[in-house]
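Sat 14:20. Reprocessing the chain from the morning session after the first attempt stalled halfway. Input below, unchanged.
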Amino acid sequence: MLTILCISSYEKGFDFMREAKAQGCRVILLTSKSLENADWPRESLDEIFYIPDKNKDWNMQDVIYGVSYLARTEQIDRIVALDDFDVERAASLREHLRLAGMGDTTARHFRDKLAMRMVAKENGIPVPEFCHILNHKKINEFADTVPYPYMIKPRLLAGSYGLKKVNNKQEMWDRINHLADEQSFFLMERFVPGYIYHVDTIISEREIVFGLASKYGTPPFEVAHQGRVFTSQTLDSKSDEAKEILDLNKKVLKALGLLRGVSHSEFIRAEDGKIYFLETSARVGGANLSSLVEAATGINLWREWAKIEILNGEKEYKLPKVKNDFAAILTSLSKQEWPNLEAYNDPEVVWRLKKEYHAGLIVKSSDKEKINHLLDEYQKRFYNDFFTTAQMAERPSD
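Finished this time. Tokens:
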């Protein structure tokens, strides 16, 4: 019997744990003490261990001591990070226990936005001009040659946390000085307006066995920082638009060296038509995008990831049959604690979000035009029925 240690500092990955248990594994969860009362799939967990956390921060020395102590009596076969913030933790533990899987160097490619851009650029993959916020002379040279605006981004935070758009040199230096000793943990890149895409991928032995390209409505940065209804819509896999994005995604994952697992990558098509790589990760995408993927294709990314981790390249992975429907997701902060979505009752509605002060749903159909119509109509109604805003914190724990 394989023993899988799942690491998650956020409440997610339930289907991964359920699938691992269904496959006959012993499943252990390591999570934050603050999530002790979370709705974990306890029926699929053999043990749960809690790490004292302050604002989601873990003391890695304590984690290594704790897991090493556990390993005295548990034969740990796999360590899996279920959230982006846990990728480096899992890699460090694998290195320390000398277990198979992604080590520190490769993990850095999928967590550190500076590292992934540097590797992409070295492999001829288009990226917006960027600069490490480190040497002030080089920063000024960048500012004198690259047109504004810029995005100043944390290298290791996920999603839109910590992002700041600056429009001139004064704003740039104000932001950099505000970062003080944290400066070297940030990068700066040219802001490229355009349409943002994401690709959700399954990889087995360096081969992409599944990839679905989708297109955001409003860019996630605007949703997080300016307040908008969040939308994303799957693309026609046969379209030139999807093929271009999927091809670039393949080049990115090959360059960064992902052996097996899942990935969520983002790209932007600039106003001149050129496609740039923005960022990637070795995890299932957040914002309920895995539910969008499952609605359109029937593929549950969490469950397939669990199967691949268990196989570990020792047996061939076989992807289930893939459906080819179209789907779209809408989510928004809500004025109501538990918004009533009953009026959104078209037969194409296949999923509703159940979360306090949030409204969300997914629609799917074999008819792309029907999805386009519903997405447009529902988005307008969401603004009237539910939409509200809240200021985003600098960090997830702020």
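The chain has three domains: 3-101, 129-190, 194-385.
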